[in-house]
Amino acid sequence: MAMAAAVLLAVAAAVVMVEVAAAATYTVGAPDGLWDMQTDYAEWVKTKTFHPGDNITFTYSPELHDVVEVTKAGYDACSSANNISALRTGNDVVPLTAAGTRYFLCGLTGHCGNGMKIRVDVVAAASSAPGPAAGPASLSAAVPTSASRAAAGVAIRVAAASLLLHAARRRQLAFTTRASLVLRACVATFGVLASFVSAAYVCSMYTLLFSRMLVSFIFSQQAGQQRINALARSIT
Question: Structural domain tally of the chain?
């Protein structure tokens, strides 16, 4: 159980690292506020840079507010008429799929006028094409992404190896159960076979065969466990 928990934690950490490297999720107004009438969203967006692939999350009480995406004209006039979309779950995740400007406001009467609106400028990520002055900074920026992908690959291999080891242990249990039944049947034949020596020989052969197979199972599991431990250590 401890190894399975460690594997799951490693996979989860790797997935998070890959997601962080690829995109970001911003909770509107956080950490000082949320989607409310107290937060200054013009100031909040100044500290953020949004790229295609990022997400913004509106967190609020659906009994008190909503989220309406509007055009620039609707944003300037604080009007939710002819809106693009309306969200009312209280935990609305909006994907920023392309570069451009998005406008959001609260559609309840008076809320937008009290500052409950936000303009989100989504800018394209920097080009990956080599420039004339590519320096150490640009090279170091690429390191987290490659490292996170490598960690994710190792974590996935650890999870796969753990599953295979678990399956091997189940096969060993099933084999042991069947071997026990066969040996019991063999012993029961002592009173039936004409020759006690013949019965003992047959049973001893079965016992030797089953013992060798059981030892093979054990060595295979030990090798698998060592492989998992080595992969897990390579993550850290």
Answer: 2
Residue-wise pLDDT for 139-167, tens only, equals 444 445 555 666 676 677 767 666 766 66
Domain identity same for 148 and 215: yes
Domain-embedded: residue 166: yes
Residue 3 covered by a domain: no
Domain that holds residue 229: 143-235
Is 209 a member of any domain?
A: yes
Q: Closest Cα to residue 25, out of 95, 111, 76? A: 95
Bridge partners, 70 (sequence order): 103
CATH number at residue 111: 2.60.40.420
Q: Which strands form 100-105's sheet, in the order they lie side by side?
A: 85-87, 67-70, 100-105, 117-122
Are 98 and 87 in contact, with CB atoms under 8 Å apart?
no
- Render pLDDT for 67-126 as a digit per residue (tens, 0 to 9): 999 999 999 999 999 999 999 999 999 999 999 999 999 999 999 999 999 999 999 987
How many residues comprise the chain?
A: 236
The rounded distance, in Å, linking the Cα atoms of 25 and 157 is 28
Beginning with the edge strand found earlier in the chain, give each strand of the sheet holding 91-95 in spatial order. 25-27, 55-59, 91-95
Is 194 a member of any domain?
A: yes
How many whole angstroms separate alpha carbon 41 and alpha carbon 29?
Answer: 7
Quote the pTM value: 0.48
